[in-house]
Every structure is written in structure tokens, then in C-alpha cells.
Design a protein that fits this description.
The complex is a heterotrimer of chains A (440), B (582) and C (128). Chain A has 440 residues and is α/β, with parallel strands linked by helices. Chain A has seven helices and 30 strands. In chain A, the strands form eight sheets. Chain A has a five-stranded parallel β-sheet with strand order 4-3-2-8-22, covered by helices on one side. A five-stranded parallel β-sheet of chain A has the order 10-18-12-13-14. In chain A, helix 1 runs parallel beside helix 7. Chain A is globular and about 65 Å long. Chain B has 582 residues and is an alpha+beta fold. Chain B is built from 17 helices and 27 strands. In chain B, a hairpin with a 6-residue loop joins strand 23 and strand 24 (428-432). In chain B, helix 4 crosses helix 13 (438-460), helix 15 crosses helix 16 and helix 15 (509-517) packs across helix 17. Chain B starts with a helix and ends in a 6-residue tail after the last strand. Chain C is 15% helix and 38% strand. Chain C contains two helices and eight strands, in the order βββαββαβββ. Chain C folds into two domains: 2-51; 54-118, CPE0013-like (CPE0013-like fold, Roll), CATH 3.10.530. In chain C, the strands form two sheets. Chain C has a five-stranded mixed β-sheet. A three-stranded antiparallel β-sheet of chain C has the order 1-2-3, covered by helices on one side. The chains are: A alpha/beta (440), B alpha+beta (582), C mainly beta (128). Chains in contact: A-B, A-C, B-C. At the A-B interface, strand 6, helix 3, strand 11 and strand 15 of A face strand 22, helix 14, helix 17 and strand 27 of B. Strand 11 (161-162) of chain A pairs antiparallel with strand 27 of chain B.
Chain lengths: 440, 582, 128
């Protein structure tokens, strides 16, 4: 007999998104079970010893662990039951349609053995993983000394280990820049940061405080094409690239080093979502949801980096809170009503991001419920001289703002009033109009 | 010989000379490029000599000709004794064995298990820190049906025999084995027309079954197959297994029956008296052996030269494989290949899409002559070649790639196995030139080599069978495959089985510890990966490496900074922060 | 002789490219500051040249506790030229008793009037 625990809402993932979702769901009166595969809550924040987290949420620039602690404490003040070091083997569904419908998570842990954890509502807050060297086609043998920035961060900050003596870093996003500084602070030589685009991806503040402060050169329009060494990295080959990001022959240089750190992108972790039949939006690499984080499968919600890769943890917390509350409402309504039809009263219209956007999230808007909806978007190019963003329903703009600057790595947040959207609207369209020529 | 010389003059003028040496042809001189060097060797192989010894030098690449394993660098042979460059324990020093096997790949380990069926003392020397580090872990795990081997060759003979032996052997040694069958898809009417020829070859080789599948049948068996197909040739006997798990299992099975596996032990020479080897010299000690078996993979011709028996030489053909995410595995049912007409001339099996036993799809391999016995550096060109294989299955895409890796095939110029007793040295047996279908052939090659070795031993001592041979090796526990109730019991007995450390492949701490405590224990993270799969998934160690390091340090009683990826010289962390500031 | 330093202003998203001419001989006095679109940019630029300060975030060793390292931060900003010295000074710190987030770990580091405080809890075992 496999023991079973029943909840109203299960939150999968105990990082900032999951913690916020658990708190949000609890506040609505739901019994919440939080499943976390590590020994401690906090997710990736545990290893982000740098500051700058929470400027919007708390008005303070906290370190990662401090931000996590705030939410861990808030969560501890609810009746959420936390299952640590617990891994989900499989999710199955039982009960058909109707009030008995449940998601049943088959879970494994050292302390509890095998148990089933079930609820009518499931919030996926599973975060993301890092792209690896092979996935950006760096060639060579497989020596020791190649690591992603997140792995390097965990080794340095949690395990207290230095990956090497001299590092080359690929990728100028904030994660890479932060780690360049971290390695330099701990005494490693950082030969340089290489960035494939013509512009750095990270915030100006980080370029200043992570590279300039430490005299670490930044090489734009460059990439690492190969790693040398059999047992241990001995050098890398770097090369300049063309506008399409392809290495230009004749520009190759060998850079001696013993460590290659990669910060070349994050990918939402959505194995469980896929196993439940959710398809992923190729633009975000996460499932499609409405403004409550509700997916195409009734009862399955997605928030945080599992939905799309965020740059501000504040927005992750916001997403989690909204989603947790919605999941709770669903669960508590579900147990009260007899049948759940597809959508059950939802009227979801498509949000389309026009030219000039990388993506907009959510992909759907449920206009059957009044209130505010938060829409996030990213431009697909750096715009310094102004851009007008409009959101139109039935041809009329319900949102219109002139932004002084837009950059792909800096996601923007828009609040919409559902009441402003005509009830017969079929879709919302995001439009971007540049004032000047685009800076690539 | 005259015809060969004439042909060489035509191709290389006076730059290359040929002479006969004890039945083999020796090529000497210079060639301008590596390709030409190999080409001349292949040409010489057509003339029926015992073997081709290619000593042609390529200016600028001389170092490659004289390449020796890095393990021996610094070790010099002074007179009859090997002197190590650094002080290293020499546990084999002064020992005596009946049989010494050189090489811990699937062939060497299979031979060790076969020899364990006799009551003899066997030692296997492997120069790396684990078995299956080289060719045996760098292939797609396919147990070929035998169709692609040249009729009449040793490849064909041993492949078909081995294919049959693998299924019961896998059960005995505790590894998974499946027969998905191999479907060679016809591209158009022209390739479809070769079906009768294919069928004829299959018949000659003694392949266990073949079928013609219509276009419709192909589509129903493989719903995701490309539209660009005109039916196919299906060989139901093609199987798959994990080649490195198989190698470890064979080694452990041999150890279970008294064989000794010496890791980090590189053979550096032989001492001979008359026409016999008396002692084997190695970096872990010099010892006596009554029979020596050369199963040294890409170094087999070098080992042969230790006994002045280099009657063949090897040239290396590199192949690159790409591993696709396990979600890709659900999109295919059989092994798929799609040869083009030009590929008929290719020397290596065409390659395609292999669904591995773990459920990934392996794309490849490519094939390119490339110098370097352990040259595993991949290149963009090889990757772009793999993309054409992917097209066979409509739903696959390069974005599903987790990683790619290279392997190096040890090829004789005759492109066939060397499975025979030495004709010059009375107690030396060769299992060399084992390229594809070497994995499939392994049980059959091992049986033959063991028979030859026993023949040699029987001439000098009384040989009796091992009455207490234990055929069964238990399969290591993989908890994710257990029914939940059984899994719960296992965790109740040992809570570390409930703590998942590799989230991509769902591997528990307990399974990692089992690998580190195994009969042939893992001593590096790559060795753990080969046994327990931790680190093989989509994040490729990104999440689990720190935890794996902690567990390895604990089990191996070493510091975190001493944990290696693949043995000496490959530490993951060089120092502790704060303490190790330079 | 003068030297021109170029850096991006980080006060607002506009990110103006600042250029500051510094007199090398006269102990780094600012001769001219250009590129800013507002007064805050001017202030930021001057501060960055004359008295750049940074928060230090790092880790310290922990012994006999549930983890090997404890994350810490400086309670205020440190002068940039002394940042590496401060982080090296942390090398010799070992925490071996339970600490709560916010507790002081080092008082008045390098006598700069700034403390080093813990940014996480740590104890003998993991108790969440």
C-alpha cells in the first residue's frame, strides 16, 4: 500500500516561484503541499550570493539567500506542508471529469520512501536548466574544466570549490558577468568574456561592476569554437563571428586557460508539463498560459522560470502569487461543483506579439473574469531612441506607452484592465513602433 | 609483389618502396598527405599478403606515427626493466599468471570471462582508470545483424555468431538486451532495386532473417519516417545494448570467477626467450605469463611490435555520434538507416539512427580517416554530416541533441578482424583490428581467442575446466524501473535509494554509491556515469555534479578536490575557496 | 596631461555614455564630464571617478555546521580600490557556531566602518 497525502493544491518546486505560489494558494484557504527535490527551500537563489534582488518587491537590493529567506519565512507562517528531498517520478490523472478529479504525483524520498501526493490543482514551478557547451556546438574532446555558470556558482558558493586557475567565459548575460566577478573575487584569473552578439546581454551595472572593476576584457561578436585538452582544459579557440553568428575563418585565436565557463542560455524545465500533454511555445520554450498561469489542461498551472526565463525575481514572485491564488480558487471551486468542462466559463483570447517582439507572456487572456492582467514582453532588438508599444483590441489601443529604451534582456511589465477589453474581442495584438533606426 | 610494386610506382613514383617480411608486405617511404598514406596501404592490402605494415611517413606527422599512450610517457625501458618516471605502486611486480590480456575493452573483458571457465590465473591490463574508456564506450551499442559485413570475411563470421550469443550472455551477466531490428530504408527506385543483392548477401552471411517491407509497411511500422522512402530491407536480428555496461559486466563476471583486472596498468614491453614471451612489462609491474593475448584496440599493432610480431598495422577512422534527448526515443521503433548508392563504396557501415537501450536516439556515426589513436576532437563538418541522418525521421531535429562524441575505429588495411595465434611467437594471440561489428562479434571472438589460448596453455600445463564457474552476475539495481511497492521496500531498507541526485535520469544516491562500491568499482565521475547513468541526461551534469562529487569523495575516501572526471589529470575542482587562493 | 574615461551611467535605463576627462598630474581631478542628460548622471559620474564604492558579497568558511560555506554581505559600501583586500581578509574567517541571517560575522572590516553580515541562516543541521 503506497501511502497518500491529499491537498487542494500541489506546488512543484520550492524556489521563489513555488514559494510565492504556496503562499498565494494558502491565503485563499487551500491546503497546500509543496514538493522540493533539494534539501533546502529557495531554489537557485540559495547560490546567488550577490545582491540586487527585490528592488521592486521590497524596495531593497537583497542578496539571493536573503530574498529566499523572506519567502521561506512567509511560507512557514502558512499551513503549507513542505516535502523536502522529494522527487516526482511520474504524474498521473485519476477521476475523469468532475469533483473527484485529481493529479496524482508518484514521489520518492529517502525519508518517506514512496508516496503519492494528490490534488485537483497542480502548480508547476520547476525553474529552468542551463544550455551546455555541446548545445552551442563547441567542439573538442571532453576534458574536465568545462562548466556552466550555474554549476560554477554552486561549486564556488555552496561547496566552496574553485573550478580552476584561469577561466575563459562565454556569454555576457548577467549570470556570466556575475560569475566573472565571483571567480575574480575568489582569486581565479578571468582571461575574458566572449559574447557572440554585437552588444553585451547583461545590465550596464553588471558590465561596470563585474568587468570594468576587475579589468576583465569583453570581446563582442566573438565566440568559443573549440576546447583543447584531453583530461583537462588546456586552451580554447576563440573566433570572431559574422552577423549571423557564424565563426569567421582566419580570426581564430588560441587562448590558454584551464576552465571554460558557459553562460549561453536557460531552458525552462518542462518534462512534467510535456508528460501531461502540454505543448510548449517555441518563443518562450514554456507552456502557453493565461494571465492566471492556467494552462491548456484544466487544473495545471505554470509560473516562474518554468513558464519563461525571467530576469527579475520580483516578477517571478508576482507570477507565483497570482498563479497560486488562481490554482486555489480552481481547486476549491472544483470540489464544490460537479463537472468541469473545457474552459468551464473561461473565455480565453489570444495575445499576439507582432514584429519587434521576442515574445509576450501570457499567450492567452481570460476576459471572462474582471480585474487586472499582467502582461510581460521582450523586444527582439536593442532600441535606445524610443519605441512606442501599443496593445490593441478590435483595432483600438487599450495600452499605449512610449518607452525611452528597450532591450531583449530586460523584460517589460504591463498592467491591463480586463474591463477595458471589448467582450467580443477575438485577440489582443502587441505592436511596437520604433522612433529611430534600430541599433543591432 | 611485382604487381604491387608496379601499382605503387604508378601512384607514388619512387617515394614509396615495398618489401616482404615474413609474409607481410612492408611499405616504407614518404607520402605527402595522410589520405595518400592510407590509400597506399589500402591498395597494398589487395595483393593477398598476410598483412600490410604501413611505415610510410608523412612529413609533419611523424609524431603520430610514433605515438605512444600517455601512460607510458616518462617511463623508459632500460634493458629488461621498465623504470617509471614517477614513483607508482607496482602491485603486479614479480607475479605469475597463466594468461595476460592486454586491453580492457569489450573484447578483452569478454576474453577474460571466457578464460575464467578454465582453472587458470588470468590478469587483464587496462591502461586507463576504468574499462571501456575508449572504443567500447564510443559506439552506438548496436548488435549488428551481420548483413553489412563482407561475405567470407571474419567480420561476417564472428558477427553472425556473436549476434546469437549476445542474448543469453546478456541475461547471464545482468545487462539489458533488446532486438528492435534494423530497417534499411530505400531512398528511391534505384536503391530499392538492390534488394535482391541485399538478400543474397544476407543469405551468404547466414544472417538470422530478413524481410522486404513495402512503403506502406515501413510507414505503419515507423509513422515518423520520411516521405522520401520506397520501402525497406528489415533485419529482425539486429539488437542493442549498452556497450560500456556490457564491458563492466563482463569484467565483473570474470572477477567473480577469479580473474584479476589491473586498472591504470599499461603494457610497455615483453621479455622473450626464443620464440616465447616470458614476461610482460607494465607500468604496474613486470610479471610472468604463459600466454599473452593482445586485445589492445587502437594500440594493438604497437603491442604486437613489443614481440616483434607486427605483421599488420592499424589506421584510425574516426566516427562522431550525436545523442538526442530521450524524448526522441519515443518517436522511433527500430534502428533506421538510409544508404545512398555512393555509400555502397564506403568502408564503414552507413550509420543512421539507433534507438539506444536507454531510449535515446544516437545519430551517426560518421567515418573519416583521421590520424591519432585517441583523437576524439569533434569538428563542425562531422556534425553537419550527421544532420543528413536525422532527416530519415521527420520528427527529429538537431535541437534535441544532448551531446556528441567521437570514437576511433582501429582498422587494418584489409578492413577485417585479426583473430589468430601469432605465427612468430608461440604464446601470443591477437584479437586486433576490431572495428565495427566488433561489439556484436565480441562473444564469438572471445570464445575463439579463449580456445586458442587454452590450446597454448594445454601444451605446457594440465588444463582443467573451472567446475565452479559462476555464470550469473546480478544486474545492478535501477530503482526508477521498479514497481512502486518494490521501490518502497528498497528505500525502506536503504534510504539513500530514495534520495535522487541525478534529476534528469532519476538516479538515486544509493545507486551512485553502488557504482562506487561495485566489484569493479568506479573511481571517477565518468566511471560512475557509465555504471549508474548519473550525468548522462539533458543537463549533462549541470545539476548533479556537486552532489556526485560529495558522494564520490565519501566513498573513495578522498578530498572533494581530488575527485576526477576521468582519472589522473582531470580533477573537477583544483582547490578550495579561501584556502587555495593563489 | 589628461586621460578620458568612458563608462555607462547606471542611474536610469537610458544608460547615457559618459566621458570624463581626468587630470593625471593633479591627483585625478575631474576636468570635464560629458554625455549625461541629467544632473543625477553628473553626480554619478563624479562619484565613480573620485570615490567609487561597492557592496561586497561573498562567502566565508563554515566548520562543524550543515554546510561548508555561508553567504555574507557588507553592511555598507566599501571603497572600490580596497575591495579585493577586503575579500582576501575574509579568507581567514571560519564560522563554527549557528548564525542567523543578519548576524554580524566580522566587525568593521579593514577599519572601513563597514561590517560583514550573514545573508543566510546556518546551523549544525538542516532544519527548515
Amino acid at each position: 500500500m503506497i501511502p497518500r497525502a491529499d491537498y487542494d493544491v500541489i506546488v512543484l518546486g520550492g524556489g521563489p516561484a513555488g514559494l510565492a505560489a504556496a503562499i498565494g494558494a494558502s491565503a485563499k484557504g487551500a491546503r497546500v503541499g509543496l514538493i522540493e527535490r533539494e534539501e533546502r527551500l529557495g531554489g537557485i537563489l540559495k547560490q546567488c550570493v550577490h545582491d540586487g534582488f527585490g528592488l521592486k518587491r521590497f524596495g531593497e537590493g537583497l542578496t539571493g539567500p536573503e530574498y529566499a529567506r523572506r519567502y521561506i519565512d512567509l511560507c512557514a507562517a502558512t499551513s503549507t506542508k513542505v516535502h523536502l528531498e522529494t522527487f516526482v517520478h511520474r504524474v498521473r490523472r485519476e477521476g475523469g471529469k468532475g469533483s473527484g478529479r485529481r493529479f496524482v504525483l508518484e514521489c520518492v524520498s529517502g525519508a518517506e520512501g514512496v508516496r503519492e501526493i494528490a490534488a485537483p490543482a497542480l502548480v508547476l514551478a520547476t525553474g529552468c536548466r542551463e544550455r551546455t557547451d555541446r548545445q552551442v556546438f563547441i567542439h573538442g574532446d571532453r576534458p574536465a574544466g568545462i562548466l556552466t555558470a550555474g554549476l560554477a556558482q554552486r561549486l564556488v558558493n555552496i561547496e566552496g570549490l574553485l573550478p580552476g586557475k584561469k577561466a575563459v567565459m562565454l556569454g555576457s548575460g548577467d549570470i556570466g558577468l556575475i560569475m566573472a566577478r565571483r571567480l575574480a573575487l575568489e582569486g581565479m584569473a578571468v582571461e575574458g568574456v566572449y559574447e557572440i552578439k554585437a552588444e553585451p546581454s547583461g545590465l550596464a551595472r553588471n558590465l561596470q561592476q563585474c568587468l570594468d572593476d576587475f579589468g576583465i576584457p569583453l570581446h563582442l561578436r566573438s565566440t568559443v569554437t573549440a576546447v583543447h585538452g584531453k583530461k583537462r582544459v588546456e586552451a580554447v579557440t576563440v573566433a570572431e563571428v559574422d552577423e549571423r553568428g557564424r565563426p569567421r575563418s582566419g580570426t581564430e585565436r588560441i587562448v590558454p586557460c584551464d576552465t571554460l565557463v558557459l553562460s549561453v542560455g536557460l531552458i525552462p524545465e518542462d518534462e512534467i508539463a510535456a508528460s501531461l500533454g502540454l505543448t510548449l511555445d517555441p518563443a518562450t520554450r514554456g507552456p502557453r498560459v493565461d494571465q492566471f498561469g492556467a494552462s491548456a489542461v484544466d487544473g495545471v498551472y505554470v509560473c516562474g522560470n518554468a513558464l519563461h526565463v525571467n530576469d527579475l525575481v520580483d516578477y517571478v514572485s508576482e507570477s507565483g502569487a497570482t498563479t497560486g491564488a488562481a490554482a486555489a480558487a480552481f481547486a476549491l471551486e472544483t470540489t464544490a461543483i460537479e463537472t468541469i468542462g473545457p474552459g468551464s466559463g473561461r473565455r480565453a483570447i489570444r495575445i499576439k506579439a507582432g514584429a519587434g517582439f521576442l515574445y509576450a507572456v501570457p499567450q492567452f487572456l481570460d476576459i471572462s473574469r474582471p480585474g487586472r492582467a499582467i502582461v510581460y514582453f521582450r523586444s527582439n532588438a536593442t532600441i535606445r531612441d524610443g519605441a512606442r508599444v501599443r496593445i490593441k483590441a478590435e483595432g483600438a489601443a487599450i495600452f499605449d506607452k512610449l518607452y525611452t529604451a528597450l532591450r531583449p534582456p530586460e523584460m517589460e511589465r504591463v498592467e491591463l484592465d480586463i474591463a477595458a477589453i471589448p467582450a467580443r474581442s477575438e485577440s489582443l495584438l502587441l505592436e511596437l513602433e520604433r522612433r529611430e533606426a534600430v541599433h543591432e | 609483389m611485382d604487381k604491387l610494386k608496379a601499382g605503387l610506382r604508378k601512384r607514388a613514383g619512387t617515394a614509396v618502396e615495398a618489401r616482404e617480411d615474413r609474409g607481410s608486405v612492408v611499405l616504407e617511404g614518404r607520402a605527402p598527405t595522410w589520405e595518400e598514406r592510407i590509400g597506399l596501404g589500402c591498395f597494398a592490402a589487395r595483393f593477398g599478403f598476410k598483412g600490410v605494415v604501413n611505415d610510410i611517413e608523412v612529413p609533419g606527422l611523424e609524431a603520430l606515427d610514433r605515438e605512444m599512450p600517455s601512460a607510458t610517457v616518462g617511463a623508459t625501458t632500460v634493458g629488461a626493466t621498465t623504470v617509471g618516471a614517477t614513483t607508482v605502486a607496482r602491485p603486479l611486480e614479480g607475479a605469475s599468471f597463466d594468461a595476460a590480456i592486454i586491453g580492457g575493452g569489450v573484447i578483452g573483458c569478454a576474453i577474460a570471462r571466457e578464460l575464467a571457465k578454465w582453472r587458470i590465473a588470468t590478469v587483464l591490463l587496462e591502461k586507463e582508470e576504468d574499462v571501456a574508456v575508449h572504443t567500447s564506450s564510443r559506439n552506438d551499442g548496436m548488435i549488428h545483424d551481420g548483413f553489412a559485413a563482407k561475405p567470407g570475411s571474419l567480420k561476417a563470421k564472428y558477427n553472425v555468431l556473436g549476434n546469437r550469443l549476445w542474448e543469453p550472455l546478456a541475461r547471464e551477466i545482468g545487462i539489458d538486451f533488446e532486438r528492435p531490428g534494423s530497417l534499411i530504408v530505400f531512398r528511391g527506385a534505384a536503391t530499392k532495386a538492390v534488394y535482391p543483392a541485399f538478400a543474397a548477401i544476407a543469405a551468404i552471411n547466414g544472417v538470422d532473417g530478413w524481410e522486404y517491407w513495402s512503403r506502406k509497411r515501413v510507414r505503419s511500422e515507423e509513422p515518423n519516417i520520411t516521405d522520401d522512402q520506397e520501402g525497406g530491407f528489415f533485419l529482425p536480428s539486429a539488437g542493442i545494448l549498452s556497450p560500456y555496461k556490457a564491458t563492466v559486466a563482463l569484467a565483473e563476471s570474470a572477477m567473480l570467477n577469479g580473474a584479476r583486472i589491473a586498472l591504470g596498468a599499461c603494457a610497455t614491453g615483453f621479455e622473450r626467450e626464443g620464440n616465447r614471451i616470458t614476461r610482460v612489462l607494465s607500468t604496474k609491474g613486470d610479471f610472468r605469463a604463459l600466454v599473452v593475448i593482445n586485445a589492445a584496440g587502437n594500440w594493438a599493432d604497437v603491442v604486437a611490435s613489443f614481440a616483434d610480431d607486427r605483421f599488420f598495422s592499424l589506421h584510425q577512422r574516426r566516427g562522431v555520434d550525436m545523442i538526442l534527448d530521450s524524448s526522441a526515443g519515443r518517436l522511433q521503433n527500430h534502428i533506421l538507416g538510409m544508404p545512398s548508392l555512393s555509400q555502397a563504396a564506403a568502408k564503414s557501415k552507413g550509420g543512421g539512427l539507433v534507438k539506444t537501450i536507454e531510449g535515446n536516439i544516437l545519430v551517426g556515426p560518421t567515418a573519416a580517416e583521421a590520424p591519432g589513436r585517441e583523437a576524439y576532437e569533434t569538428s563542425p563538418l562531422e556534425l553537419s554530416e550527421l544532420e543528413k541522418h536525422i532527416r530519415i525521421n521527420r520528427r527529429l531535429s538537431p535541437s534535441m541533441a544532448i551531446t556528441y562524441f567521437a570514437g576511433v575505429r582501429p582498422c587494418t588495411y584489409e578492413e577485417d578482424f585479426v583473430v589468430e595465434r601469432s605465427s612468430r611467437v608461440a604464446n601470443l594471440v591477437h584479437a586486433a583490428g576490431i572495428q565495427s561489428p566488433g561489439l556484436a562479434s565480441a562473444p564469438a571472438i572471445a570464445a575463439e581467442i579463449a580456445r586458442l589460448a587454452a590450446e597454448i596453455l594445454a601444451a605446457t600445463k594440465r588444463l582443467s575446466p573451472n567446475e565452479s564457474f559462476i555464470a550469473r552476475r546480478e544486474m545492478p539495481l535501477e530503482l526508477r524501473r521498479l514497481p512502486l511497492e518494490e521501490r518502497a521496500l528498497a528505500i525502506a531498507r536503504n534510504p539513500s535509494y530514495g534520495r535522487i541526485v541525478c534529476r534528469c535520469e532519476e538516479v538515486s544516491e544509493g545507486e551512485v554509491r553502488d557504482a562506487l562500491r561495485s566489484r569493479l568499482p568506479a573511481a571517477s565521475l565518468d566511471a560512475v556515469k557509465r555504471r549508474a547513468r548519473a550525468g548522462m541526461g539533458r543537463c549533462h551534469g549541470g545539476f548533479c555534479t556537486p552532489r556526485l562529487m560529495e558522494i564520490a569523495a565519501d566513498e573513495l575516501h578522498i578530498g572533494l578536490c581530488e575527485v576526477t572526471k576521468k582519472g589522473e589529470g582531470s580533477r573537477i575542482a583544483l582547490a578550495e575557496t579561501k584556502v587555495g587562493r593563489s | 596631461m589628461s586621460e578620458t574615461r568612458r563608462f555607462v551611467c547606471i542611474v536610469c535605463p537610458r544608460g547615457c555614455a559618459l566621458e570624463v576627462d581626468i587630470d593625471e598630474s593633479g591627483r585625478g581631478a575631474i576636468l570635464e564630464l560629458r554625455g549625461n542628460e541629467c544632473r543625477r548622471g553628473d553626480e554619478y559620474g563624479r562619484r565613480e571617478i573620485l570615490d567609487p564604492r561597492r557592496t561586497l558579497t561573498s562567502t566565508v568558511r563554515a566548520s562543524g555546521l550543515s554546510r561548508r560555506r555561508l553567504s555574507v554581505r557588507s553592511s555598507g559600501e566599501l571603497p572600490l580600490p580596497r575591495l579585493m583586500e577586503a575579500v582576501r581578509a575574509l579568507d581567514s574567517i571560519i564560522v563554527n557556531e549557528s548564525v542567523k541571517c543578519g548576524d554580524m560575522v566580522v566587525r568593521d572590516i579593514l577599519a572601513l566602518g563597514v561590517d560583514i553580515i550573514a545573508t543566510d541562516d546556518i546551523g549544525p543541521n538542516e532544519a527548515e
